[in-house]
Design goal:
The structure is a single chain. The protein is α+β, with helices and mostly antiparallel strands and 129 residues long. It has one domain. The chain is 33% helix and 26% strand. It has 3 helices and 4 strands; from the N terminus they run ββααββα. The protein has a 4-stranded antiparallel β-sheet. Strand 3 and strand 4 form a beta hairpin. The longest helix has 17 residues. The model has no long low-confidence stretch (mean pLDDT 79).
């Protein structure tokens, strides 16, 4: 992706698979395809507007092509649909910053059906022997 201009977050499609905790077992739900910008907006509402966790999620998916986000009762697995959307760390951070600026200016703000939710993000557990 170094030779061409970086796409905007609204031009990058991701696949989202939600795994819900039902009685101690994780059950996969249907996969959804959506623009990365919609997912970033969701995380910004859930996690806060200048949150380093949201930045970390976006950087991970853009640099590695996939990320798993663990919440208390469910996990989300996000994957880039088009591997050519992968970029380096600097480009990923710049895309995140560009998206934040466009949200603040109201340019791409798309809050169709995003009700306010309470989400608790916990740090990963360390397995002990």
């Amino acid at each position: 992706m170094s030779s061409k201009a970086a796409p905007r977050t609204s031009e990058i499609t991701i696949k989202e698979t939600k795994l819900e905790n039902e009685g101690g077992a994780m059950q996969a739900r249907d996969s959804l395809y959506k623009p990365l910008s919609v997912k970033v907006d969701e995380y910004m509402l859930k996690l806060g507007y200048s949150n380093s966790q949201a930045l970390g999620i976006v950087v991970q998916i853009l640099t590695q092509g996939k990320v798993r986000v663990d919440f208390r009762d469910f996990n989300e697995r996000l994957e880039l649909v088009n591997e050519s959307d992968r970029c380096d760390l600097a480009q990923a951070a710049a895309l995140f910053e560009e998206h934040l600026l466009s949200m603040q200016s109201g340019e791409e703000l798309d809050d169709e059906q995003n009700p306010t939710q309470r989400v608790i993000v916990q740090t990963p557990r360390v397995a002990t022997s």
